[in-house]
Amino acid sequence: MPAISFNGVLIIAAIAVLVPVVLGFLPKVPLPGAVLEVIAGIVIGPSLLGWVHIDAPILVLSDLGLGMLLFLAGLLIFLPGFISDAVGLLLLAPPVRAGLQAVTAAWFVRRFTSVSGPGGVRIWTRSESSDRIVRGDVVREDEPPERLGS
Q: Which of 6, 18, 117, 136 is close enough to 121 for a disulfide, judged by CB 3.0 to 4.6 Å?
């Protein structure tokens, strides 16, 4: 049985840590970290320098990484639909609907103001809070100011 060496895994881990550290010191580099990690992997791999060879630990870690990637992709596809289905299922319950209706009505009344329109029709307009209104005089700069006492 051949001896298992983790030297390649150690080199890969060192590259995975060093690339973001180097990018932190060089903020002007326009490449994302993932691109530089792929380039570093090509450089240290069997194609160029040959520091890392594909052996059992690297195969296991690559299969584990692929499995995690596929799990994450499936989760990102599944989760939005699951959340919208759960919200729709919750809204089937009358107490949840009544609570949501009360919260929405309170927000609406706080946000908008009712004004009596023509013919007794109620018109909802945006409410203007007094702290956002700046009151003052308009002074035109192209006309000379009026003299006091004249």
A: 117
Distance CA 150, CA 148 (A): 6
Helix (H, G, I), strand (E, B) or coil at 72: helix
The owner of tokens 């700046």 is 134
Task: Please choose, from the candidates 135, 117, 114, the residue with its C-alpha nearest in 3D space to the C-alpha of residue 126.
Answer: 114
Structure tokens at 103: 């919260």
Mean pLDDT (10-residue bins), the chain, 150 residues: 82 91 87 89 89 88 94 91 89 91 86 71 66 62 64
Counting Cα atoms < 13 Å in the Cβ hemisphere of 31 gives 12
3-state secondary structure of 9: helix
d(CA 29, CA 20): 11
Whole-model pTM: value is 0.50
Q: CA angle at residue 35 from 31 to 40, to 5 degrees?
A: 115
